[in-house]
Amino acid sequence: AIMRSSASRATHARRARRARRAKMASEDLDALERMIADRERALVEEHVTSAFTALRIAYDAREVPAGGAIVLGSPAPIVVDGGHMKEFAGRAFHERARVKCGLSAVCEKELARKASIAALDEQAMDDSGVDFSAPEYKMKKTKRRGNKEFADHYGALGLALVRYRATKQQIMEQHKYLTIQLHPDKCGIAQADDAGKEKIEQRFKAVLTAMETLTDKNRRREFDSVDAPDFDFPSECKEGEFFETFMPHFHLLERFSETQPVPICDDPDASAEDVRKHYIFWGAKFKSWREFPHEKEDDVETAHDRNHRRHIERENQRLRAEEKKKETAKIRAFVEAAQKYDPRCIKQRAEEKAQREARRLGRTASSVKIQEEEAAAKAAE
Q1: Label partner for 366 (CA 20 to 30 A): which of 25, 249, 251, 351?
Q2: Is 79 helix (H, G, I), strand (E, B) or coil?
C-alpha cells in the first residue's frame, strides 16, 4: 500500500509538471499570437489607413427619433472624393470604398501577410535585427563531394569571417541568438505563402544543421576539410623570396596538425637548432587530421543489409585513404623543396661542407707530414 501510494504521488507530480509545461507553452503561444496581431495592425495602419481619403457616412437627422437612434433599411449616401454613392455599411461598403481609393480587393489580412513576406527579404531582416547582407553572413557556394553536399555552416551562423577559428562558445551563442530571431512563428510563417514558408523554413533549418555539424568533432573536421581551399604548394622560388613563397604554406598547414602547438621557424636569424627542429617536425612528425571525401563515395544509407553497409564503408575509407596518401606525398615534397631553398639551411650546409673540407685537408696534411718523417727516417738509415 505504501508503494502504491508513492507511485500514485509520483504519477500525480508528473501530471502536474506536464500540465504546468503545457500551460506555459500555451501562454507563450498566446503572447506570440498577440505580438503578431499587433504587428499586423501596425502594418495595416501604415499601409492601409494612411492611404484612405476622408470618408463620411451621411444620414437624414430628421429620421432619427428623439432620444434614440434608427437603423436605416436603405443605404445612406457616402461621400468619397466629392462624389456620392450608396452602399450598405458592411463588407461590401468597405470594398467599394477601397475601389474609390485605389485599394480594390485588398483586405487587412492579405496586406499584412504581403508586408510580412516583404520584410523577410533574402538579404536583410529589419524586424529580427539580423542583417544578412553583412560580411559575417556571406555564405559560400554549396560544395559537393560524391553523394554529400556541404553548405556553408559558418555563414549560416554569422561566423563567415571567423570560420575554423570559431570556438564552441561562439557557435552556441550564435545558435541561441538566431534560433530566437529566425523562429518561423516570429517570422510570420502562418501568414506567408508557399514560397515565403519555404524560405523561412530553410533559413531556420540551416541554423539548426550548422549547429549540429559544428558541435560534433568528427562532422566538423569533415566539413573543415572540405571548406579549406586546395593548397598549391610551391616547389621553387627566386633568390631572396623564400620566406614570402614558402612560409605562408606552413602556416596554412598548421591548423590540420594533430600535434599542437606546431613549431614554425620563420625568423631569418633563427639559430641552426631551431631550424633543425622545424624541419624534423615537418619532415617526420607532422600528421594531418584532414579528411578527403572522394567523388566516387557511395551513400551508406542505400545499403541493402548490414554486410552491404560495411562493404560501402570500407570502400569509402579506401578511397579517402588514397586521397590522403597523395596529399601526404605533396606535403613531403613541399617540405623537401623548402629545405632545399631555405637560405638558413643553405648557409648551414655550406658551413658543414667547409668543416668537412677542413678536416679532410687536416688529415691530408697530417698524412703528408707522417710520410715525410718516414722517408727522412729511412734516408738516415
Answers
A1: 351
A2: strand
* Predicted local distance difference test score (pLDDT) of residue 86: 46
Angle CA 361–364–370, to nearest 5: 145
Query: Tens digit of pLDDT for each residue in 238-288?
Result: 888 999 999 999 999 999 999 888 989 989 999 989 999 999 999 889 999
Instruction: Please provide the size of the chain in residues.
Output: 381
φ/ψ (deg, to 5) at 84: -120, 145
Q: What is the DSSP string of 21-38?
A: HHHHHHHHHHHHHHHHHH
Which residues on adjacent β-strands are paired with residue 148?
145
Give the integer Cα–Cα distance in Å for 191 and 181: 17
The pLDDT of residue 277:
92
| Three-state DSSP class for residue 377 | helix
SS3 of residue 84 by DSSP:
strand
Exposed, middle or buried: residue 253 (CB in 10 Å: 0-12, 13-18, 19+)?
Answer: buried
The 10 Å Cβ neighbour count of residue 28 is: 11
CA distance 27 to 98: 37
Cα 91–92–94 angle (5° rounding)?
A: 65
Grid coordinates representing 129 are 535585427
Cα within 13 Å of Cα(184), Cβ side: 17
Burial class for 162, CB neighbours closer than 10 Å (0-12, 13-18, 19+): middle
- Grid cell, residue 112, equals 499584412
